[in-house]
Amino acid sequence: MPQPRVLVLRAPGTNCDVETAYAFEQAGAKADRLHVNRILESPGKLADYQVVCLPGGFSYGDDLAAGRILGTQLKHHLFEPLRDFQQAGKLILGICNGFQILMRSGLLLPDEVGANGKQSPATLMLNDSGRYEARWVKLEVAGSPSPFFAGLQQLELPVAHAEGRFVPRDETVLQQLRTNKQIVLRYVDGANGNAHPARYPANPNGAVDDIAGICDITGRVCGLMPHPERFIDPMQHPQWTRRPSASEGAGLAIFKNAVRYFS
Amino acid sequence: MLWEVDIYPKKGLPDRAAERLTAAARDLAIHAALPVTVAQSYLVQGAFARPQIEQLAAELLADGVVEQTVIAPVGDAALEAPPAGRERLVHVLPKPGVMDPVAQSALAAFSDLGHQAEAIRTLRKYWFGGLNDAELKIIATKLLANDAIEQVVIGPLTFQQLDLGSAYQFQLVTVPIREFDDAALERLSRTGQLYLSLVEMQTIRDYFRELGRDPTDVELETVAQTWSEHCSHKTLKGRIRYRDERGETQFANMLKETIFAATQQLRQRWGKHDWCVSVFEDNAGVVTFDDTCHVAFKVETHNHPSALEPYGGANTGLGGVIRDSLGTGLGARPICNTDVFCFAPPDTDPASLPAGVLHPRRVMQGVVSGVRDYGNRMGIPTVNGAIYFDRRYLGNPLVFCGNVGTIPLDKVHKEARPGDLIVAVGGRTGRDGIHGATFSSAELTEHSETLSGGAVQIGNAITEKMVTDVILAARDRGLYTAITDCGAGGFSSAVGEMAEKIGAEVHLERAPLKYAGLSYTEIWISEAQERMVLSVPPEHWGEFEQLCRSEGVEATAIGTFVPTGRLKLLYGEQQVADLDLKFLHDGRPPVVREAVYQPAPVEPLNHTPISALDSAETLVKILGSLNVASKEWVIRQYDHEVQGGSVVKPLVGAANDGPSDAAVVRPVLSSRRGIVIACGMNPRYGDFDTYWMAASAIDEAVRNCVAVGADPSKIALLDNFCWGNTDRPETLGSLVRAALACRDLALAYGTPFISGKDSLNNEFRYVDSSGVQQLIAIPPSLLISALGQIDDVARAVTMDFKEPNHLLYIVGGTRHEFGGSHFALVHRLSGGEVPRVDPAVAAKTFAAVHQAIATGTVRACHDLSEGGLAVAAAEMAFAGGIGARIELGDMPADKRQVDAAHLDAMLLFSESNSRFLCEVPRDQAKHFEAKLAGIPHACIGTTLATDRLEIFSAAGGADLIDLPLAELKAAWQKPLAW
Fold first, then answer.
1. What is the pLDDT of residue B896?
2. Which member of A16, A53, A96, A222 is catalytic?
3. Cβ proximity of B956 and B889 under 8 Å
């Protein structure tokens, strides 16, 4: 199997690029961290890669809203190359800020034409608690076609964000996501028999339908709020001193899945 | 055209900004149920047609799924149409010249879409219902705006364009100092915000008399900044005559002869095993770590700016200490942050606040948000900290921010060379932070806010992140020879320091500016954030500049290092300064100070008989006291896991909510070697004896490290002294005494100090309502930060009980030490003996506990601090969700001091140092005890498969404490669960 190459795309304010590249390498891929300016200069560079990953951070400070500036940049300058990339059977993953960027870019959920021009069908807004929160959450994998989650059922991962509350524009959008199996990951309430709806803080941001991650209709473009790259090693878990030792962290499976997809 | 874009939550969705404001008004007793609607707005100046601005707003400014907009030119009635019942309109916007990073980003994003705006500014718009003018004014000043950086416009906006600054007309200013008498010198020092002493002003005058010319304003500013307390630490490095009950000591350089000397002595003792790399000479202290990198550590304070503008002050405080790492050697990569705060209690009566003082709750919220937004945006985990509350921090909050970095072995040495270019990298220079260095050396008054508004800076973390990315890349390519950060004093301090042994020529007009209109002096002393100064050899300039440009970072050569021994400043063709660097750095007359310390006579703990106090109730009260209570509200707002290195997190246990003793972080993901970060501080002990306060703080910092598994033979310390006005001999005396303890304990523990900082004059002066002058001075506040190491992070332990039916061991002896204790605090008792340290026993204890942990005999370990054994046991139990039964009878203790009736209280709540509580599996008990041979210790109980903590009297019989874990945890979590 040829070793898949991963482009970890960074921008001003990206800050999870090093550990995300490390996670892909631990999974067996070859990862490069490249500044978005290099891709804007020559989008042809995308052809060298099988996976594009948008890691976490605060791209351009999240100044106007989380992911909005970089997402708009992708939409205006790189939409076609990235769409072609996806159509060529390759994978795009957005983690946390990367998810927020993908939501703005139209690559994950295409804009709909409404009364006021083009509109995004959903958004990630300020957490219900009104503030940034870092905590571990329990997640269930929700039967989507996303190759990143093939074979996975449940896992624990950390979240760390202020704007992670998934909100569809209306009930129709939500129904569509369900019908198309585009919901990838949902928060579950471990203290309450993994029930839905998950109460705060099991659902850390108030996301509608406990949605923690979604994919496009093919499953090959995927965005999630939790950080799998922060659970590669068992000692990254907050309770590792209470548990029998394990060989790897549960998040590594997501990166291994991406590698396996190309084998 | 000046367009306004107002963004509101869509109908039916919550207005979070309004909710927060209503809650704040209620908390501060300003209004019980404030009716308000809030809009986040932008002012956009440019030739846009309506469809254009609407499209840009939809794409960049507002979120169409959850937000709605009102867009119109300023002055249009549509912007002034009130929501139902909310007819009073208030605008808050940054004052001209204040950093507005969001507006900058908007400008760049507009441009990226091919639309050039002339200027953009952010704005907050508030609609209130049912308020009169007076109420509106109170709300505006107490809640909405900070006068230091923001302006309030009540009613519609009246201006038609944004103020973009106006061009600067060069005019050389000289100060006729040669003719000044003493009174004139003192006046100049004060009104010019130089804050120098008369002797120093006389020295400057005499120097220029000798030169036969008057200084320019920028020369005077340069000297004042270089000689400021903040930059030169002249008091503690000065001559001090110190007297205490043991006699008199003369110091020629107090710090050098105490704390530095101890480090030098240890390094000599260790010889070729010396693990210090760079101490007290660079921006951070550096020690060895592994065969690829060293670690650097620095903690800074940003107290005065945080008092005036908590968010901006704390924000830039953290930004500054991160630049300290980046400016250490040829640049250290920042890997984690620490933060320690001191505030007045958040329940302070708002009506009791002196004029000019922000409410402590507002200070705390602002400070926490400031640290959060900088650390999180930089992608540096904030892993360790503490918060202390005391009434005396009113008007004088303390904000300590720390950063740890890793630096490759061959990048520690730096030296600018003649011919190298002086290169400014990062943020542009503006009018922010003017006079920060000299201001932070002065005492605050109720007028400070108006006098020193310019001293407040606003940070932009993303700029600093971008700078960090390119500098580390340039470092690895070897593109520069030296680097330092632009902190207090701006270019003046950074260039002045780098040029000290060479000489420099700087062209001030070359510095990129945020806006027009800055004078040459303002450019030179501005403390605008996110700037670094590098010395770049001319042959590398092209590559360096290209690297910066490729990531959108601005780099400008503003001058050259020249071998003249002089600092020459030019503005265009005009020379504006020409100073001898020798005078600048060595010309300051030595500060000579008197210091006395008279330890307070020991008084017996004044109390109702302890035996009458209920132990269970006492425990619950201490758990619910502010210093002990859970800080989860703060910790969860910080990303403590970014970079992936976190091993022991700040919150641990079965529900991830127990208080960890220290943080363990893996700087290199592929290695199992870790660093351990902890702190110690106890201002309450300082009221008894600052020697034992300092000793206790060191003991606490070290034992916190040891408790998670750090090797006590390799722990480095930092000191941060925050004190009141040291012109008073007794205030300085209390500081010298603490420094003596630092020296003694560092030597006894083998824990060298590697860096430190002091912040003096933390006092607030005001006139109270009856016209009487009042002074609030902070208690002596020494923060000790510890940087430990652990060979294999898999050997780390956490403080939560792990399993039922394990044995519980107390390690270390207990004495009757209630002076400054939390037992005394919650019962409002005075007197008692302050906790002391027996350094020899303590050092042996740490080594033994470390051996017990390193060999795997310990499942949980917690240090005993505020609230003693009872609090430690309660925290371990509720963190682990596992009950315990403890009998006090066998505890090693000095029982001669107390009668039987008082013994239980002493065993439960005394705060004797150097103690631990350990959970040990039964099959490890023999090994554990063998490691602790010769150290006072005893098995005092077991963990249980229950949900209760039971503690039995030393005398046997009835239980003293029998409480459900849920009740203990709730008491501990409640006070700061905001």
1. 82
2. A96
3. yes
User: Which two three-digit tokens encode residue B872?
Assistant: 């430690």
What ipTM was assigned to the predicted interfaces of this complex? 0.96
List the alpha helices (DSSP H) in B442-498. 448-451, 461-476, 490-498
Q: How far apart are CA B832 and CA B838, in angstroms?
A: 18
- What pTM was computed for the model? 0.95
Angle between helices B615-623 and B868-880 (to 10 degrees): 70
Asked whether the beta carbons of B866 and B717 are under 8 A apart, the reply is: no
The sign of the CA dihedral B883, B887, B892, B897 is positive
Phi, psi of B774 (to 5 degrees): -125, 150
∠ CA B527-B533-B534, nearest 5°, is 175
Paired tokens of A176: 């569509």
Per CATH, domain B610-659+797-973 is 3.90.650.10: yes
pLDDT tens, residue by residue, A192-204: 888 899 999 999 9
Do B643 and A133 lie within an 8 Å CB cutoff? no
Bridge-partner residues for A117, per DSSP?
A: A114
| High-pLDDT (> 70) share of chain B, % | 97
Q: Tell me, yes or no, if A227 is annotated catalytic.
A: yes
For chain A, percent of residues with pLDDT exceeding 70: 98
Directed axis angle between helix B360-378 and helix B310-326, to 10°?
40
Q: How far apart are CA B368 and CA B380, in angstroms?
A: 15
Res. B956: pLDDT tops 90: no
Answer whether B643 sits within 8 Å of A19, measured CB to CB: yes
CATH fold label, B2-154: Mth169; Chain: A , (3.30.1280)
Tell me which residues of chain A, numbers 15 to 34, contact chain B at a CB-CB cutoff of 8 Å: 15-16, 18-19, 22
Band (B452; pLDDT cuts 50, 70, 90) = very low
Summary count for chain A: helices (H), strands (E): 7, 13
Catalytically annotated residue among A161, A215, A222, A229: A229
What are the tens digits of pLDDT across the range A203-225?
A: 999 999 999 999 999 999 999 99
CATH topology of domain A5-261: Rossmann fold (3.40.50)
> Which residue type, as a one-letter code, is found at position A231?
F
The dihedrals phi and psi of B102, each to the nearest 5 degrees, come to -65, -40
Q: Strand, coil or helix: what is B122?
A: strand
Q: Do B644 and A236 touch (CB under 8 A)?
A: yes
List, for residues B99-138, the tens digit of each pLDDT value.
888 999 999 999 999 999 999 999 999 999 888 888 888 8
Decide: B818 and B867 in contact? Cβ < 8 Å.
Answer: no
Kindly report the backbone phi and psi dihedral angles of residue B100, in degrees, each rounded to the nearest multiple of 5, phi listed first. -135, 80
B112 closest CA partner among A73, A42, A75: A73
A55 min Cα distance to partner chain B (Å) = 11
- A227 touches B: beta carbon within 8 Å: yes
Positive/negative CA dihedral, B948, B953, B957, B960: negative
pLDDT value for B609 = 61
Measure in Å the smallest separation between the Cα of B448 and chain A Cα atoms. 31
**Residue B652, helix vs strand vs coil:** strand
Residues B959, B961, B962, CA angle at the centre, nearest 5°?
A: 90
Interface test with B, best of A18, A42, A63 (most B CBs within 10 A): A63
Residue B692: how many other CB atoms lie within 10 Å: 26
- Of all residues in chain A, the percent with pLDDT exceeding 90 is 92
Q: What is the dihedral of CA B131, B136, B140, B143, to 10 degrees?
A: -40
Q: Do B466 and A232 touch (CB under 8 A)?
A: no
Domain boundaries, chain A: 5-261
User: What residues does each domain of chain B span?
Assistant: 2-154, 610-659+797-973
Classify B403 as helix, strand or coil. strand
Confidence class for position B611, pLDDT limits 50, 70, 90: low
Whether residue B641 and residue A18 make contact (CB cut-off 8 A), yes or no, is: no
